[in-house]
Amino acid sequence: MATQAAELLRGSALEQRRAITICHFTTAHTTLKSRSFHREFLPLAAGGIGVRYVAPMAAPARRDGVDFISLPQPENRLRRIFGPVTLLEKLLRQRASLYHFQDPQLLPLAFLLKLVFRRRVVYDAYEDFPSMAASSPRIPRVLRRAAAKIVAAVEKLAARSFDGIVTADPFTLRRLAHAGRNKKLVFYNFPNLDFFPHPPPRAKHFDVVYRGGISHRAGTFVLLDAVRLLSTRAKPPRLLLIGYFDGPAAEREVRERIRALGLESSVEIRGRLDHEDMAEALGDARIGVCPLQPVPKFLLNIPVKIFEYWACGLPVIASDLPPVRPFIRNSQAAFLFRPESSTELARSIAWLLNRPRWAARMGAYGREFVVRRFNNQGEVHRLRNFCERIAQMQ
Question: Phi and psi at residue 213, in whole multiples of 5°?
Fold first, then answer.
């Protein structure tokens, strides 16, 4: 009888979990975002949670347990004006247990969803958006401080109004922790090992790889200067840059710098990659580099790239910044360097290239850290419990 009762309780809990439906919505992303899809909702759907993904993208109606609801592309002014109305109508039609979003531009619609239509809403502030506004090249310099204050104030109001707040690091959550009495969670962007399997032995076509934004603040120019310092080696290092530019002018500046340094044959630039292709691309290099500069955003946010490099078995060289330091100190899997010093970065790259066995050992330590601790499995378990508690609130 006790065994039968336990089975019934487990079955009841499973049915309760399956009854929960989460609706994620975005208007900013026309491709699958690695945090929301690959790290959060794909694993939740695999665990029995109902997931609906509302986005302006062409996608199958259902993939791996996730239901997709496509939004029309805002091709003309009329569609842009009535886009929020169309989105709100689609969201209300889902009748989800809770609604999850990440785009700060959707905060007004989310307030409407919560305060007028009384839906349960979770805001995933996966970046420190006020610090991003404070340094954004898309905002006139004279308006950046005011824009940062406005974003911070609206997020504080969101923390008081919504049912849950999620961040990607404790530094961002600290700013919102005491606002409101809702549930709060840090969901780290650790790799989903389904997309980062154990790296097989393979030939390497690049010595160094960087993945992320390609810009001054991301340390791209420090990295290029370091590669230039190493160009006199018998075998100059080859660099792979994977990512995106702030705009056409920023891309021209980077390409002009590569030409000026005489690095055209040493540097390859690829655009954004689908998350499913990231491990294959990163694994084509010997060393992963994270040369982020000490701008407000990078003094708060933990860079995903470090853990993805480690998941691919790469040793890491990273800027010595507060969010990075705790993960790397005493790790035996990475070196730190002063963010502005291309000389220190070049020295670390050369040291690893000259000691391939030591570099392989460091990469193996990094892979072990990710498999043992810094992976997505525990994060998904905590996120599932977080969402279930919100969905079941009276």
Answer: -65, 140
The Cα 312–Cα 307 span in angstroms is 9
pLDDT digits (tens, 9 = 90+) for 159-179: 999 999 999 999 999 999 888
- The amino acid occupying position 62 is R
Q: Report the distance separating Cα 64 and Cα 179, nearest Å.
A: 36
- Alpha-carbon gap, residue 46 to 58, rounded angstroms: 22
Task: Indicate the pTM of the whole model.
Answer: 0.90
Question: Which sign, positive or negative, has the C-alpha torsion 111, 180, 127, 93?
Answer: negative
Identify the CA nearest to 225 among candidates 199, 183, 262, 188: 262
Given the DSSP bridges, would you call strands 316-319 and 285-290 parallel, antiparallel or unpaired?
parallel
Beta pairing, strands 164-167 & 121-125: parallel
pLDDT tens per residue, range 108-164: 999 999 999 999 999 999 988 998 888 888 889 899 999 999 999 999 999 999 999
**At a CB cut-off of 8 Å and minimum separation 6, what does 81 contact?**
none
